[in-house]
Amino acid sequence: MTATHLPGDEGLDDRVPFLARLESEDRSALLSLGHELSFAPRMVLLHQSEPSSHVLIVTHGWTKVTAAAANGYEALLALRGPGDIIGESAALTGRPRSATVTALEPVRTVAVVREHFTAFLARSPAVSFALLGLTSDRTRAADRRRLEFASMSVRERFAALLLDLARTNGRRTSEGIELSVPLSKQELAGSVGASREMVQRLLKELRERGAVVTGRRAMVIVRMDVLRQIAHG
């Protein structure tokens, strides 16, 4: 699964994966500390609220990061793919997992126990600063999206979400840009603060306008211009 960078799109700093921020020597040294773990599609890599503290470095495949509220409402927080690090917050703070991470396709990772990971950071200032930079970029991007979403209607937020997914996880086909992440309507709804029924209505509108083609956990964006028009109000 590869991301499609569309003409005119500018990459965001938070999309630069952790391993890509490291020098080759540091990258090899970090990976040598762990052991490989593989996950089939839909398998859970990390469970929200569990007390584990190891980190996972994704070497192949894509995952989704979700969080559930007490009332069962689930939101899609992020997508993490090759080169990304997941679970670092629990490793650094010792707190339970803040989210659930699930494989969207066959995923391979390198698992590093907390003690080895934190010791490596202590003796590798460059890696520590790279991790700090990644955390800062992710926080800044999340703040920016929250600010943008606060000024948008649900309809505009949904169009903006589809555009973002197309940029980061789109795959060009003869029909259009296929979203390479099998997300449910509930997960899409949780990403824009809407109900599942609202997402169904919005998808129906987009299908009627010829902007998207949908199937079971599948979507192809046929007209990016329609989504841009909606997202920009």
TrEMBL record:
This protein's UniProt keywords: DNA-binding, Transcription, Transcription regulation
Domain of life: Bacteria
UniProt source species: Streptomyces lutosisoli
The HTH crp-type domain, residue ranges: 152-225
Lineage: Bacteria, Bacillati, Actinomycetota, Actinomycetes, Kitasatosporales
Record protein name field: Crp/Fnr family transcriptional regulator
Domain Cyclic nucleotide-binding: 18-121
